[in-house]
């Protein structure tokens, strides 16, 4: 029984390390940095990207409400209508944004919601010069089902 205690402890420690690495992978860019996309200075703004469902004749427009923070905070940043599969809004970095998209299909209204924090990351160690890249800040409010 005493031999099992160190094995269990090591297994638990390994599990904690694996979980910590997987949680931090969202920010790690490692060798995946495209140095041609580098900015030489730390940016303070960038495009928030919103992915949408678009179908000519069926879903031609999608009303959007973009919030500075969570939707529950009700701090509206921008109200607009999207006319394609992607909508971009130039916003301040290091903030959490949410979006509410309202699809109208026939007599049905479908609401899609997503949120994310948009950040700048210093990755000069991956390139041979000063390099800042934008991470996160992609909101997905595409419809998941084909049949409406």
How does the SSE layout of this entry go?
Elements: H1 4-24, E1 45-51, E2 62-68, E3 76-82, E4 86-92, E5 95-105, E6 108-122, E7 132-136, E8 138-140
Parallel strand pairs: 1-8
Antiparallel strand pairs: 1-4, 2-3, 2-5, 5-6, 6-7
Q: What does it look like?
A:
There is one protein chain. The protein is mainly β. 14% of the residues lie in helices and 42% in strands. The strands form 2 sheets. The chain has a 5-stranded antiparallel sheet, with no helix packed on it. Strands 4-1-8 form a 3-stranded mixed sheet, with no helix packed on it.
Separation of the first and last Cα atoms: 59 Å
Question: Main β-sheet, in a few words?
Answer: 5 strands, antiparallel
CATH architecture: Sandwich
Mean pLDDT: 84
Strand content: 35-45%
Structural class: mainly beta
Element-level helix/strand string: HEEEEEEEE
Roughly what percent helix?
Answer: 10-25%
**Continuous helix count:** 1
How many individual β-strands?
A: 8
- As for the CATH topology, it is Immunoglobulin-like
Domain module count: 1
Shape: elongated
CATH class bucket: Mainly Beta
CA-atom Rg in angstroms: 21 Å
* Low-confidence runs of at least 5 consecutive residues: 16-28
Largest sheet strand order: 3-2-5-6-7
